[in-house]
Amino acid sequence: MAPRKSDDDLKRYYSIGEVATKLGVNTSLIRFWENEFSHIKPNKNSRGDRRFTKENISQLQEVFHLVRERGFTLEGARKEIAAGTQPRPGKQEIIDRLTEVRRRLESVVGEF
Predict the structure, then answer these.
(1) Assessment of whether the complete model's pTM goes beyond 0.70
(2) Domain extent at residue 57
């Protein structure tokens, strides 16, 4: 039996609010990073609302990892991305899973 795809697997575009929730940051920070990192270019609809693809989310996760988790400055993160020393996709998946585990553990500890 084939595994069922979740709604998240079937989505093509995500709103800025969904992306912010996924990363655990404010929407204003997403807009700021979009302005600071020229490679992040979400699609915009006729009203100007941002629509992020999975690739855009991956780019934002990389920025989040460099700036928030590794402590890079914005300029340092730009240089790291330009140098092409980005984590391999398999490594990024592991980082994402561990980040999710950490969030769950923090929520459990917060309940006590």
Answers:
(1) no
(2) 11-87
Sign of CA dihedral 15, 33, 22, 9: positive
74: left (phi over 0), alpha (psi -120 to 50) or beta: alpha
Q: Which two structure tokens, joined as six digits, stand for 79?
A: 């240089």
Alpha-carbon dihedral angle through residues 56, 57, 63, 68, given to the nearest 10 degrees: 160
Q: Does residue 4 lie within any of the structural domains? A: no
CA distance 30 to 24: 10
pLDDT 10s digits, 87-105: 556 777 788 888 889 988 9
CATH of the domain at 28: 1.10.1660.10
Q: Give the DSSP letter of residue 25.
A: S
